[in-house]
Structures are given as C-alpha cells and as structure tokens.
Design goal:
This protein has one helix spanning 4-12. By secondary structure, it is mostly loops.
C-alpha cells in the first residue's frame, strides 16, 4: 500500500457543510430587467424595388420512367 494514499483521501475528504455557503442557482436570482429610458422610433417605410423575373429553363421536363419489358 502506498503511503500517499491515506494523505490523498484525507485531502479529498469533504469538509463540513457548515463551511460552505448554501448552493444557489444564479438563474433563480431575481435580476431586475433594465428598462430603456426611451422607446426607439418605428422603422421608416421603404419602397422596395419589384422582384426580378427569374426565367424558367425552357422545355424542361422530367424524363418518363422506362417501362420494363
């Protein structure tokens, strides 16, 4: 048996729970939500150009499946 093993166990032994603060989840804390000092103005209306026509591939069709003899 290694003489360091008991020392490691003693060092790794948990301390009394009284020494640790109570566990709390940071997401459960009530954090005040910041309120803006003023509201932003609405976005201005913008006239958008018309969408360009996308030409289709002429005379494209899916080939018919070949019939098995």
């Amino acid at each position: 048996m290694n003489s360091a093993a008991p020392r490691l166990e003693e060092a790794a032994a948990p301390k009394d729970e009284e020494e640790f603060p109570p566990r709390t989840c940071p997401c459960r804390r009530q954090v005040p939500v910041p309120v803006p000092e003023h509201e932003l103005p609405p976005f201005p209306e913008v006239d958008l150009p018309s969408k360009p026509e996308i030409p289709a591939v002429p005379e494209f069709h899916f080939p018919e499946p070949e019939a098995e003899p």
